[in-house]
Amino acid sequence: MKEEDRITPAKAGRGKKIRDKLAKILIADDSEENLRFFKTLLKNKGYRITTAINGEDALRKLRKQQHDLILSDILMPVMDGFRLLQECKADPALGRIRFVFLTGAFTDKKDEELGLKLGADAFLRKPIEPDDLVRELAEVLSRKRTAKKVGRKPKEDGRGLQSGLYNAALMQKLERKMEALEEEIAERNKAEGALAKSEEQYRVLFETMDQGVLCWSEGRVISANPAATRILGLTVEDLMGRSATDPIWKGFHEDGSDFAAEDFPVTVATKTGAPVRGVTMGYFSSSDNKSHWIRVSAIPQFRPGEDRPYQVYATFDDITDRFFAFKALQESESRISAILENTQDAIWSVDRDFRLITANTGARQLYNRFYGVTFIEGMDVLSAMSVENRELWAGIGQRVLNGEKVTLEKRYEFTDGPIYLEFSCSPIVSPSGRVMGASNSARDITERKKAEQHIRESEERHRLVVENVSESIYIVQDGRDNKRGAGRSRPPR
Description:
Elements: H1 9-12, E1 24-28, H2 32-44, E2 48-52, H3 55-62, E3 69-72, H4 81-90, E4 98-103, H5 109-117, E5 122-125, H6 130-142, H7 163-208, E6 212-217, E7 220-224, H8 226-232, H9 236-239, E8 251-252, H10 265-272, E9 276-285, E10 290-301, E11 311-318, H11 320-342, E12 346-351, E13 356-359, H12 361-371, H13 387-401, E14 406-412, E15 419-429, E16 435-444, H14 446-468, E17 472-477, E18 480-486
Parallel strand pairs: 1-2, 1-3, 3-4, 4-5
Antiparallel strand pairs: 6-7, 6-11, 8-9, 9-10, 10-11, 12-13, 12-16, 14-15, 15-16, 17-18
């Protein structure tokens, strides 16, 4: 230690005013967070700073280096702030150092009175605005030092000046602190109990849920629930430590191509840090030598302040039955679609609001020819009709929606001749029995109508011939004479 830094009573007795920017301040506080904050604050204001974690540590540093001001908490372990102040005032080398209390526990008026009676220059309470603290310390440092606050070393039995008030205040604060600690411990025990209960609930959920779960870390499986082992047909031992590149997965796409390791949902989520949802993946299970299908999602997990996931949770459902059912439905729909597109009939369906659900090519062509409008899914099929036709078809549609099947023939006039259509309208009924809409078909029966008309005309001509012939007409059937009709008989000669 340099001679000029050593504290002596002669140096302590100097009465010159301290310049704020050169002042050296010791901060005593058992909170490391408070020490860091106040040290940074005051150092940025030009002060030189020393820190201590309790009164005893502060005394040791005060006796090694000269300081201009002490900023001290009160409730500290080993030696509290009141005791530190008494020790400083009883030491001629330290007694003239300005002393400021900054406390969050001793906030009563009586605590302030005690601190000032013991010799403190100021008594401040936490929390305090940084600017207010800097201003208060500057004001204290600007005061002239006086000798009246230098006292005697406190007696070890604690019966010195103000010891009764000091001990009473300290006991009161300690009791409050103990009560606060007991409440904190009770709350912590309550929280730990709730956490343990929550963890147990999640553990039970993890082990009993039907959805498979694999937890991945650093690209490898670190945990798996029972559903995952059941769905994949593998044991926990088979799964632990496996990477996405392990051939055990044998994944493939819907088109039969292999699932590359870099395309695995877990790999993508780990690389991008973004969730991956609803990926359909096939795999071959050696447990039953069959292909199975799952729908996989991968959700990355992050630690606070990090942008790279430390874990990824992969969840998946067994959709094998649904997958094959869906494929069968697709094939069935393809066959039905092929039939509808290759039939000569116009076929379409509407919902309860007469909005188009689906239509084949024949129906689209027919609607466009009749009304000059393109048939589009979701459109109101009555909107392009004339008022007369709209009323007709609205009435028919209502009958169908009430559960009735309606058939009718209708003639449409065109410049190149009439067209006859035969309509059939049936209700679409849900499994619950509710009518959801109407299924409709229209068949061009123009040629049939022409043929019927031709037959009627031919029959009429034959009838006129028969009625105007002079001889009787007989039809011979099975070798027997059966008189089927007669005209006027020729008169006998």
